[in-house]
Amino acid sequence: MTASSVCREASTPKRKLEISFGGCGFLGVYHVGVGKCVVDHVPHLFDEFSGFYGASAGAITAVCAACKSDPMVPYKWVKKTFEASREHKLLGALHPSFNLYARLREFLEGFLPEDAHKKCRNKVKISMTTFDETKTIPEPKNWLVSNFTTRKELINAIIGSSFIPGYAGLKDLPKVRGKRCCDGGFTSNIPRGHDPNVITVSPFSGECDICPQVGTHVSTT
């Protein structure tokens, strides 16, 4: 199923619909393409979705969709950040001097509207991996957060959902509401609720409603 066909199908009924953007790192540019398709062909569609799910890079897209932000702005940031990481030829984004999450926070603070948390409250569900620290060995579990109280909390949730231990260096895990958390893709890479009418989006070929055909690939350029 293509993005265009999903747009046509979703725009014809009066159905409760939700959409889930999977985690994918720099390949989040694929989500941007899906968002651009919606904006170009059925601009009212995002208004009709009752919920947006997102994990890791998909969380950024979910928030942008709920806020009706220009999808090309995150695309330009991802492309610029990816190109900057390649300046460190040996380690790329893993280089100690390349702080991806500081760059992400700076981008979100400058890009998201002041009332982003209000627009996303109980509508955007961000997938994070948290840990049951009562266990001898902390057990990872998925945590969906949606009732954002402040813009800062929303930004922290996006960063927590995107944080990959090791990739981010030897740093403490970020905290959201006092809980240590990391990339939501570890426990639920394509989060969804119990409603069967959830449109799933991923840049990886597979069983998602919107994804590349087998044998194709997604480029960050």
Brief overview:
By secondary structure, this protein is α/β, with parallel strands linked by helices. The chain has one domain.
Tell me what you see in this structure.
The protein is an alpha/beta fold. The chain has one domain (3-201). Helices cover 36% and strands 18% of the residues. It has eight helices and seven strands, in the order H-E-H-H-E-H-H-H-H-E-E-H-E-E-E. It has helices spanning 3-11, 29-41, 45-48, 57-67, 72-85, 100-111, 116-120, 151-162; strands at 17-21, 49-55, 124-132, 139-145, 175-176, 179-183, 198-201. Strands 1, 2, 3, 4, 5, 6 and 7 form a seven-stranded mixed beta sheet that branches. A hairpin with a 6-residue loop joins strand 3 and strand 4. The longest helix has 14 residues, at 72-85. It is globular. The model has no long low-confidence stretch (mean pLDDT 83).
Largest sheet: 7 strands, mixed
Radius of gyration based on Cα positions: 17 Å
The secondary-structure element order is HEHHEHHHHEEHEEE
Mean pLDDT: 83
How many angstroms does the end-to-end distance come to?
24 Å
**Envelope shape:** globular
Roughly what fraction of the amino acids lie in strands? Answer: 15-25%
* Count of domains: 1
Total helices: the number is 8
Can you tell me the residue ranges where pLDDT is under 50 for at least 5 consecutive residues?
none
Q: What structural class is derived from the secondary structure elements? A: alpha/beta
The protein's oligomeric status is: single chain
| Structure summary, number of beta strands | 7
**Helicity range:** 25-40%
Keywords: Hydrolase, Lipid degradation, Lipid metabolism
Motif (GXGXXG): 23-28
Motif (GXSXG): 54-58
Active site: 56 (nucleophile), 183 (proton acceptor)
